[in-house]
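Design job #97: recover the sequence.
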């Protein structure tokens, strides 16, 4: 399979996607980024062809699959171009900054049968897989409460990484709300299987005094009344802090997505484990290539991202206004 990488400056390319693809039986046909230095940093030996316009890469190299990245405000347009070309692709979350703009692109991809995968990698984590198995077996129970926390290092790391647009709300949509919030909101929607009908959100700017928020705290309610809270922020001196909690009529689990145990209200605890957060990106990358090659749908696609982005848009509105946003 011939694979092209678009938006090579995205930090996940150098950390996760390119190293995994290089270890696989695929041909990397080129790297594209408006900043030629980004491709040079990733490929100092010049093993691959470098492009500053991704369209030129697509036209000259004719890849079978692309890993697509761009500033958040450009992602929907990029996805639309790839769908119109009928080209299978992975795209980073959040795939845009406006759910109403993304919705017709997702619909077109589905109608035309264009493979597309969104990097919501928590779906590959041991706990999420365990809970999905329980739900499919009718043993998850009715969700009542959900909590998700993802805290990371200071915001200026993105400036240091050459992606300063992440600190501009016009280009990024928001700060950690749009960078990390999609992971928690997506999991809340996945665990409840319901649509969110009310969204509140509060943010802080006290730590870094950037245009984007330091931390966002989102509160959601579903049609049945399940409560969900997602808190994400650039608040740590370094590394990551993660926590997940779900309470249903059948069980409770609180801790990490990586390993632990699910406590059943009627039965023995169910252990889970076997994959770290960093390792999930390699598993995701291999799965994307395998699914695209076999003509199988992605685990998470643009259609699912539209629903999550709708909640993210509402949270951004609520954070700005200080009022609860109700979704019809």
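Job complete. Output follows.
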């Amino acid at each position: 399979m011939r694979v092209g990488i678009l938006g090579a400056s995205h930090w996940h390319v150098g950390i996760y996607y390119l190293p995994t693809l290089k270890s696989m039986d695929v041909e990397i046909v080129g790297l594209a980024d408006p900043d030629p230095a980004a491709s040079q940093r990733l490929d100092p030996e010049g093993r691959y062809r470098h492009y500053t316009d991704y369209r030129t890469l697509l036209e000259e190299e004719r890849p079978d699959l692309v890993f697509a990245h761009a500033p958040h405000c450009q992602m929907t347009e990029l996805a639309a171009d790839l769908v119109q070309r009928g080209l299978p692709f992975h795209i980073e979350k959040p795939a845009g900054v406006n759910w109403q703009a993304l919705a017709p692109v997702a619909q077109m991809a589905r109608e035309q049968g264009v493979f597309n995968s969104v990097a919501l990698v928590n779906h590959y984590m041991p706990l999420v897989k365990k809970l999905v198995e329980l739900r499919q077996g009718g043993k998850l129970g009715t969700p009542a409460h959900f909590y998700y926390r993802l805290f990371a290092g200071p915001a200026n790391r993105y400036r240091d990484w050459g992606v300063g647009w992440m600190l501009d709300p016009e280009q990024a949509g928001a700060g950690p709300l749009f960078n990390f919030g999609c992971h928690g909101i997506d999991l809340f929607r996945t665990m409840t299987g319901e649509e969110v009908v009310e969204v509140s959100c509060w943010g802080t700017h006290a730590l870094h005094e950037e245009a984007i928020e330091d931390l966002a705290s989102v509160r959601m309610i579903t049609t049945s009344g399940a409560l969900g809270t997602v808190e994400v922020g650039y608040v740590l001196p370094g590394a990551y802090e993660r926590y997940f909690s779900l309470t249903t009529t059948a069980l409770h689990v609180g801790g990490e997505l990586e390993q632990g145990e699910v406590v059943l209200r009627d039965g023995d605890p169910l252990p889970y484990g076997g994959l770290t957060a960093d390792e999930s990106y390699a598993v995701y990358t291999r799965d994307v290539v395998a699914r695209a090659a076999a003509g199988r749908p992605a685990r998470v696609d643009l259609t699912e991202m539209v629903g999550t982005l709708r909640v993210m848009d509402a949270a951004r509105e609520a954070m700005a206004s200080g009022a609860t946003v109700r979704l019809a």
